[in-house]
Amino acid sequence: MNKTAIISGGSQGIGKALVKKFLSEGFTVYTCSRTGDKLKDLTTEFNSPLLHTFVADLSDKKQCQDFAGWVLGQTKTIDVLINNAGFFMPGQIQNEEDGVLERQIEANLYSAYHLTRAFLPTLQAQKSGHIFTICSTASITAYTAGGSYCISKFALLGFTKVLREETKLQGIKVTAILPGATLTPAWDGVELPESRFIPADDVASTIYSAYTMNPSTVLEEILIRPQLGDIEL
């Protein structure tokens, strides 16, 4: 039986690189996106019977539960869960539009919270599995244009730390990934060379490497930055 990876937000960026990596390693992959057309493109590009897609906006609790229910209707085991869904909105607390904090928290924090809670009973019953959460350098560094995005990512790292403490005696590994500027569509329009960014495939390879470590070992946090350092938000 193939191992199973669940990757939220898998249609582009780091999520797409993760789908590519885990498919290449023979995993059955379940992923979702808010945009059906992007999922169709993903399916066409990878052309793999191991890839299964579902349209869902994970900033909505009901759609989180729908995605989880769909996955659990097709597999009874989970080897890897990667909480990747989320988005970036630049701004400052003092002047960003009303509602930005709520949207960032819903997409970047609540999606991981609700999705993890939906799959935890399965992971606990099998006493195994690895949960990765895509945080950010913005989880540990306040940027002047980070605003509510930084707040949501600080909270996401806190969520991951709490989850690690709760589950470490249950056979479940938990890892926070903190990438800096990664070459994804989020940086479209920025006039910087590709060499200034982390390739998304490097993030995916790092996560897979962390997954393959000995059962007695866990990398709790992985900080990844461009060689030349952070790009100021």
From TrEMBL:
Name under which the protein is recorded: SDR family oxidoreductase
Species: Aquirufa esocilacus
Family statement: Belongs to the short-chain dehydrogenases/reductases (SDR) family.
PANTHER family, per the entry: DEHYDROGENASE/REDUCTASE SDR FAMILY MEMBER 7B (PTHR44196), DEHYDROGENASE_REDUCTASE SDR FAMILY MEMBER 7B (PTHR44196:SF1)
One function term, GO molecular function aspect: oxidoreductase activity
PROSITE patterns on file: ADH_SHORT
Pfam family, one: adh_short
EC number(s) per entry: 1.-.-.-
Keywords: Oxidoreductase
Keyword Zinc-finger: no
Organism lineage string: Bacteria, Pseudomonadati, Bacteroidota, Cytophagia, Cytophagales
InterPro entries recorded: NAD(P)-bd_dom_sf (IPR036291), Sc_DH/Rdtase_CS (IPR020904), SDR_fam (IPR002347)
